[in-house]
């Protein structure tokens, strides 16, 4: 694990800044029925639980898990994220014949692209998706999907937890609250940078959100920034 973050500000102030990023990352899109639920897997198994809940509530008839081993999980697990997430969903009562698994992707763009290829191989053509992701990855997932697969319709959702609850209860035990804040900071930087690289559609970032980002970077929450 990296050494603890050292910062001059109080924890309360750091959390206030992080809350601003958390709120921005949320899309707050209302659920509606769809053709498929697409789960962008990661280190956060609560996302699998949320996806299983949505399937069992009949928001969509097909559940797709996408994820191999990414930058964070390759040091935690040997099993692909999608396989682990699918087992969690099956344990919650989702029938195996309603699940598809894509377990080779290593980033958000590949999640979408490899899922697109998998569905084509299966001769399936869902038009509407509910994309399920970590709470602080909603906006970047939306922007990536819209870039990679613009002809499809989507809404994005995540585990429905307030920031303080998420930090204290639902993060991977190998990641501290400071780690999660650093990841959120890195995701905001990617929202700013990735449209120019062709990875995402542009998303406006309010000045106060970017100011909070800059303060967090200065405070040492910079371990997941894109370099160069």
Automatic annotation (TrEMBL):
Residues 35-153 form the DUF218 domain. InterPro entries: Cell_Envelope_Assoc, DUF218, Rossmann-like_a/b/a_fold. Signal peptide: none annotated. PANTHER family: DUF218 DOMAIN-CONTAINING PROTEIN, INNER MEMBRANE PROTEIN, PROBABLE PERMEASE. This is YdcF family protein. It comes from Nibrella viscosa.
């Amino acid at each position: 694990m990296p050494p603890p973050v050292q910062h001059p500000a109080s924890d309360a102030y750091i959390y206030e800044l992080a809350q601003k990023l958390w709120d921005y990352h949320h899309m707050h899109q209302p659920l509606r029925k769809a053709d498929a639920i697409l789960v962008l897997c990661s280190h956060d198994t609560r996302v699998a639980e949320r996806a299983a809940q949505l399937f069992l509530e009949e928001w969509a008839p097909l559940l797709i898990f996408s994820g191999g081993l990414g930058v964070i999980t390759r040091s935690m697990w040997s099993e692909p994220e999608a396989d682990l997430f699918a087992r969690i969903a099956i344990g919650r009562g989702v029938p195996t014949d309603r699940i598809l698994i894509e377990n080779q992707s290593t980033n958000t763009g590949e999640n979408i692209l490899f899922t697109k290829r998998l569905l084509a191989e299966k001769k399936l053509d869902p038009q509407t998706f509910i994309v399920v992701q970590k709470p602080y990855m909603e906006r970047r997932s939306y922007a990536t999907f819209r870039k990679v697969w613009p002809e499809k319709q989507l809404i994005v959702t995540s585990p429905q937890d307030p920031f303080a609850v998420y930090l204290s209860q639902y993060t991977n035990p190998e990641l501290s609250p400071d780690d999660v804040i650093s990841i959120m900071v890195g995701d905001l930087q990617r929202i700013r940078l990735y449209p120019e690289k062709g990875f995402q559609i542009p998303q406006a970032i309010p000045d106060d959100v970017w100011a909070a980002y800059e303060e967090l970077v200065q405070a040492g929450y910079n371990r997941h920034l894109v370099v160069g």
